[in-house]
Amino acid sequence: MASGFTLPGLGWDGGRAADFTAHSDSGRLAGRVARVDKSACTVLTEQGELRVEYGDEVPCVGDWVAVRLGAPGTDPRLDAVLPRRTAIVRGGVGRGSRSGLSGDSSGHVLAANVDVVYIAEPAAPECDLGRIERLLALAWESGAQPVVLITKADLATALPELLDAVTAAAPGADVHPVSSLEGTGLEPVRLPAGRTAVLLGPSGAGKSTLVNALAGAPVMDTQQVRAADGRGRHTTTHRELHVLDGGGLVIDTPGLRRIGLTDDAAEGLAQTFADIEELAADCRFADCAHDAEPGCAVLAAVESGDLPERRLVSWHKLRREAAWMAGRGDARLRAEQTRKWKVIHKEMRRTGRNRP
Ligand SMILES: Nc1nc2c(ncn2[C@@H]2O[C@H](COP(=O)(O)OP(=O)(O)OP(=O)(O)O)[C@@H](O)[C@H]2O)c(=O)[nH]1
Ligand SMILES: [Zn+2]
Residue 68: is it exposed, middle or buried by C-beta count within 10 angstroms (0-12/13-18/19+)? Predict the structure, then answer.
């Protein structure tokens, strides 16, 4: 792209400017990371789109960065990643999630500085409420506002009922049916200038089609487009930040087969299951596990039909998973420390020193 972007159009504000002052004095350029590849990333700046090399500090899509322009003929280099306001952190792929916002690898932080998390769940063949809850936990944990989009709404057989079921599974989040195909339901999804959304959801949910519908002009290849030119089923393979025509920014992500929770998902789960948390206040025991305890208000709500049993089952499942991740994190930490000490002891024996 030849022309530049305006920083406010990319989501810049006074706080970012303050973060940037430490880097601005020596002719550095502020920009927003649109895409990350091995060793280089695409950064949107007032001077246009730049290819920027990075080293040990790995940026992720959505990051605000300081770029150092090299001598003519050399590639710009990443100088620093500015502090992240929000971060979508995916668990279950190595360590580093403990620190949340500063997760230590690009594979870990899916997107940064996002205002809204759009959770795309297709109306057909079926809506998977458990998957929505899992993504809601991730979204609440990120610090951004989750919004559930029932995509391919044109294929729904009983939309009002579906809407009710999804709304019950998403307390505190707005739920909107959308059809990119028919162009309906898009208004509440449109973003004001400078606001950033990330789209999460399974492969085939219609995320790329929705990005195109919001953009007004095709910015993404979709499965259909590719199928037509004989190149088979296209799937999004990388995360990318798109600047929409009407303002607003959206990050498309590949449909992840499995999004694990991080080991510190407790807060996100509490918000995802705010209805269960509220009921739990009336359980006889303060530490009620809502399993088989007498005087359990949650089980009573399931019994009376106020709380779908599916939801309690989902709560148990995700809580177990988060607890397991936490245990695994601790086990890894211990193993790492043991390894470190083994090396130190070996070195001590070798040098005859008895202190590290
Ligand atoms: N009926 C209907 N089909 C849609 C709609 N949106 C997308 N589709 C179709 O669903 C299929 C998948 O759409 P994509 O946008 O590629 O899905 P995706 O979520 O980006 O998939 P990945 O890139 O694999 O993550 C395509 O064949 C689209 O034409 C819609 O609103 N209604
Ligand atoms: Zn209980």
Answer: middle
Q: Tell me which DSSP letter residue 144 carries.
A: S
Buried b or exposed e, range 7-44, using 16+ CB within 10 angstroms: bebbbbeeebeebbeebeeeebbbbbbbbbeeebbbbb
Q: What local confidence, expressed as pLDDT, does residue 151 receive?
A: 98
CB 205 within 8 A of CB 122: yes
Alpha carbon distance 58, 39 (integer Å): 8
Residues within 5 Å of ion ligand 2 by Cβ? 283, 288, 290, 296, 298
pTM for the model: 0.84
ipTM of the complex: 0.97
Residue 196 structure tokens: 């950033």
pLDDT tens digits for 63-98? 999 999 888 888 899 999 999 999 998 875 444 433
Domains of the chain: 8-81 (2.40.50.140), 87-252 (3.40.50.300), 266-349 (1.10.40.50)
Q: What separation in Å is there between the alpha carbon of 170 and the centre of ligand 2?
A: 20
Ligand nearest to the CA of 233: 1
